[in-house]
Amino acid sequence: MDERVDLARSKTAPLTVPLGRPKPPRRRGIVKWLLALVVGIACLFAWEQLEKPTPEVAPSPGAGRGGGRGAGLPPQTIRDAEAAKGDIPLVINALGTVTSLATVTVRTQIAGTLQQIGFTEGQMVKAGDFLAQIDQRPYQATLEQYQGQLAKDTALLAQAQADLARYQKLGRQDSIATQQIDDQKFLVTQDQAAISTDQAQIDAAKLNIAYCHIVAPVGGRVGLRQVDAGNYVQVTDTNGIVIITEIQPMSVIFSTPEDNLSQIAARLKSGASLPVTVFDRANVKQLATGSVSTTDNQIDTTTGTFKIRAMFANDDGALFPNQFVNVSLLVDTLRDAVVVPNAAVQLGPQGNFAYVVKDDDTVTVRKIVIGPADADHTAITSGLAVGEKVVIDGADRLREGAKVQVRNGSGHAGTGGAAPAPDGQHAAPGQDPGQAGQHKHRRPQGQDQGAPAPGP
Predict the structure, then answer these.
(1) Would you say the pTM of this structure is higher than 0.70?
(2) 81 vs 311: CA distance, rounded Å
(3) Which residue windows are transmembrane per the record (predicted)?
């Protein structure tokens, strides 16, 4: 009975499966193991290829000592130039401001009604030219009043002097007291002082009348009119009547680091004239040429610079007051220096270097010390000799001992000759033919990161 009940219960009870991740089939495990084995073999093969040393290639005939690593590679097309002897100008570039030698705000020195304007805006005037007229009638009346007072005091003085002469005569006769004679002397002195006061008041009145006639204190260009005729002007007016700016000659003030002070001061002390050229804000158009006039008497401690004033005739009016300009100061000229084109100078971890082309059409890395430079050439103080050829184009992939093929075209690169486009490529109009075959992702000049560091 119990066995039948258990059998029936077992048929109706749900089938229970133990919880947990089922075991993967055996076939899936084999596939994973094979995949891992393939990946490991591929990684091992790649590592062996990276660590495998590059086999040496036998140098080609004529390679000579310059074979090296690059002997088995095709020659790199380059352009070269010859190190020559030349002059390099020592130029200081700075930012400057055009500054007038005299800027005067013409103001009235008396109060009164502005009757007349005697100038045109923008007019060139000379010192003493008539500018404006103020009503002088009140000051003319004051002058006449002081002149009348002077005449009165003059008559009183004459009377007092006559009385004094009579008193002195009576005093010699003992007919008058001495005190009366002394009082008369003091009266004469007072009348003389009154006349002096009257004369001073007359002079002041005449000066006020002269102030009514306003003239130009300096020569220059008249600006915009600050007040119109008919207005009542006073001494306290801040704008004045007009502003005059001297523009011929004109000066430019610019600053340069204090490190240049000794060289500039020495040149000025020797009596040399230091030429200065100014350009517009874009540093493209030349505005004027002049020379250094003087330097400031102190160094600005906040910026470590000192100011220099340069003078210009400015006959054409190209320089305008407060104009921003670019300044080029020629301090000196380095004579008979070894110069190369700027493109020949490279920059590496150990400093500046250049690729020198040898007679066997290979290049060698030469450490150089550069000096002053201009827009086209750089002076080499050590490391190169006159006549040696340096690479000026195509130095991106060069290494020590690399084989090169020089293609300078009909003219030598060092003398301005154009080189044809390498590998048969054609240069675009206005493009240097030697640059037509260069890689479009060429690194900046002097930044050849792959170049070996030149030896000491």
Answers:
(1) no
(2) 40
(3) 30-47
